[in-house]
Specification:
Layout lengths: L2 H5 L3 E3 L4 E6 L20 E5 L21 H14 L5 E6 L1 H12 L4 E7 L17 H13 L1 H13 L6 H11 L3 H13 L13 E8 L5 H10 L4 E9 L3 H4 L1 H13 L10
Parallel strand pairs: 2-3, 2-4, 4-5, 5-6, 6-7
Antiparallel strand pairs: 1-3
Helix pairs in contact: 2-3, 4-5, 4-7, 5-6
Length: 275
């Protein structure tokens, strides 16, 4: 195993001709894909990895300066693909990793046959003509709460993000992976995500994009998925699914997994209606 693979706990399973790479979002790790992976391994080669800073990675490897922007994460994805000698993949990214895939595809479009963006947002903070869902003051308050008592913050944040039942298995699972992050790293990643503005990148994306969004997501309003669709440089399609929460692959796999499988297998380049 190479240095990059080991650092990111890379797992390669399945033996299909096409490669699917799964990137997880903030506060989770590769286990967030556990409901999807069994349906992929018979038909695809599947690559799983952990973002630097997530619980299973070595916190000593987390470079606060490198990961203060999404470019650091994008270079990691490219390094993983290069080390595995993957010259083309279907990249499914959730939340933070959806935008990581976007940035990586601008640097190296040759590596990506398409991007599947789940719960994606290029900008979480509202501005004059853009509705991202949060005011800057909201983010400042969340950061202060994280700093003062990380465990208590998780207890409040996890149910809000997952949506639905406070005692659900998905809330417990998200709480577990959040708690596995070192608090100072979690705060740094949180600040990076909730203050970036990647709207200007969208027009530079030429790789086909499948945008999938929960109909009710505290973190990402439905309007954001349409904004991405309208501003991408290449072909794209949007599907809003009847799920609640920011992690539908974990909280509502019976709805989300069939949708993800359909977008993995179906190419919009064959569609006349895609724009």
């Amino acid at each position: 195993m190479g240095v990059v693979e080991e650092a990111h706990n890379v797992k390669v399973i399945g033996s299909g001709k096409k490669t699917v790479v799964l990137g997880h979002g903030f506060g989770t790790d590769q286990s967030v894909w556990k409901h999807l992976v069994p349906y992929l391994v018979d038909d695809y080669r599947v690559v799983l990895y952990d973002n630097m800073g997530s619980g299973p990675t070595n916190p000593d490897y987390f470079d606060f300066k490198r990961y203060a922007s999404l470019e650091g994460y994008a270079y990691d994805v490219i390094a993983i693909l290069d080390e595995l000698q993957i010259d083309s993949c279907i990249y499914l990214g959730h939340s933070l990793s959806s935008m990581t895939g976007v940035v990586a595809s601008i640097f190296r479009p040759d590596l990506f046959s398409k991007l599947i963006l789940l719960s994606a947002s290029p900008r979480f903070i509202n501005s004059n003509e853009y509705y991202g869902g949060f005011e800057k003051e909201d983010i400042d308050q969340l950061c202060q709460a994280m700093e003062s008592n990380y465990k208590s913050w998780i207890d409040g944040f996890a149910p809000l993000v997952i949506g639905g039942d406070m005692d659900s298995v998905a809330v417990q699972e998200f709480s577990r992976t959040l708690f596995n992050m070192r608090p100072d790293i979690a705060l740094s990643v949180f600040r990076t995500i909730f203050t970036f503005d990647l709207r200007h990148f969208l027009s530079r994306i030429t790789v086909p994009c499948h945008i999938i969004q929960s109909s009710k997501d505290l973190a990402v309003p439905v309007a954001v998925s349409e904004y991405i669709h309208q501003n991408l440089g290449g072909k794209s399609i949007v599907e809003v699914i009847a799920t609640e929460g920011h992690l539908p692959q974990l909280s509502a796999p019976e709805v989300a997994v069939p949708v993800l499988l359909r977008h993995i297998s179906h190419d919009i380049t064959a569609d006349h209606e895609a724009s």
